[in-house]
């Protein structure tokens, strides 16, 4: 049992195949990917999902020939990785579009994303909005990378289960200039409990296990990256800067914690997730077997439930979560696309700053706040090939 396996408090925030005939139209590179190959039981779910999505495409704008294929970072080509990293730096060099009076620490275009994630954290984790909100969030950054910074590919995902035994074997974290960099420098530290501000429960805390880093990352293209907002979840909350909106320029830190990956975010648990029978089961499995663990594994900035998008790997981490939901939905698009489960707030708790949000069950008609004035209904964030969305995961 991993250290945190029994905790009650949980925040929310492929290159192998046995039958080549199954490859279909999906791009596939069987070489040099490494890690633990996808087992056939998971592959079965993946193929059903891909087949059902492609069959569902009609004569609309999303077709079999223009559908975006979101691939594993380990399987895209080097040039696409270089281009993605370039585009992230490009957004980091652009001014924010948001009103900086809301958050003087929001200094670049990436911070527009981090800001709204902080602002919405207590509604979009451990709630019914977790999956649809993050789906639209990912779609927005993918669009910004492509339209504002000329990125030619689509959002990649971190192939977590393939590298569950040693994530540094993945090209996501191998420390090369085409990765997101590796662990943070080792800084001696123990486990801590941090307070999640805003919940109307006195000092609601989240445990943070001690990993093997803790300091600034020392390699890769984000080595000298400066982040500005946050941290938000802290041992002591400063009432003058409760949500970390003030500028706080600093390096990107990580704190790899193997206990959240090894024997946890493996193929068996990925399969348990996509094999869930109901939406309630799916959401519970995603939150407890995967979502918290993937943030906890990376640690440092990525483990702050509010300002976690400060770590550029956040988007690949959430693309994997979105992919697991997509595969589950794709087993039965008719029954599952709009399935929802969960409360309107974090664990149904009241918030000290939003007394008029009833902490009741979320519905697909509820509006969500995506930032910059966009308030789509929850149901808009659920399908993958409608409302301007058009993507499939390989
Ligand atoms: C990938 O691209 C980077 C940057 O251009 C280069 O340094 C590296 O050698 C390339 N790696 C491979 C495997 O081609
Ligand atoms: C989020 O932003 C709204 C204004 O758009 C503000 O009223 C609210 O207090 C903010 N919440 C947090 C947690 O920052
Ligand atoms: C970061 O800064 C150091 C010191 O100036 C430099 O040696 C290193 O190459 C920089 N790394 C990147 C990825 O720019
Ligand atoms: C909550 O945490 C603050 C420090 O951030 C501390 O001063 C206060 O005593 C704590 N309150 C309770 C009820 O534990
Ligand atoms: C799934 O993850 C849990 C920890 O969240 C772990 O205890 C369990 O052994 C894993 N299941 C499998 C089948 O590996
Ligand atoms: C939260 O949702 C559960 C069902 O998922 C429901 O039983 C409970 O009443 C809700 N809590 C609140 C405070 O509305
Ligand atoms: C579909 O394409 C048409 C023609 O290019 C365009 O006018 C319309 O806005 C598109 N609809 C969506 C939902 O993207
Ligand atoms: Cu989140």
Read across the widest sheet, the strand sequence of neighbours is 1-6
What is the C-alpha radius of gyration, as a whole number of Å?
20 Å
Distance between the termini: 31 Å
What compounds are bound to the protein?
Answer: 2-acetamido-2-deoxy-beta-D-glucopyranose, copper (II) ion
Strand segment tally? 6
CATH class annotation = Mainly Alpha
Biggest sheet descriptor: 2 strands, parallel
The sequence of SSEs as H and E is HEHHHEEEEHHHHE
CATH superfamily: Di-copper center containing domain from catechol oxidase
What shape does the CA trace take?
Answer: globular
Structural class: mainly alpha
Please provide a written account of the structure.
There is one protein chain. This protein is mostly helical. It has helices at 40-56, 78-92, 109-124, 130-149, 267-274, 279-298, 314-329, 333-336, and strands at residues 68-70, 184-186, 192-195, 205-208, 214-217, 391-393. The model is unreliable at 1-31 (pLDDT under 50). Bound molecules: 2-acetamido-2-deoxy-beta-D-glucopyranose (7 copies) and copper (II) ion (CU). Copper (II) ion binds at residues 13, 117, 124-125, 134.
Question: Could you list some keywords that capture this structure?
Answer:
394 residues; mainly alpha; di-copper center containing domain from catechol oxidase; two-stranded parallel sheet; two-stranded antiparallel sheet; 6 strands; 5% strand; disordered N terminus; binds 2-acetamido-2-deoxy-beta-D-glucopyranose; binds copper (II) ion
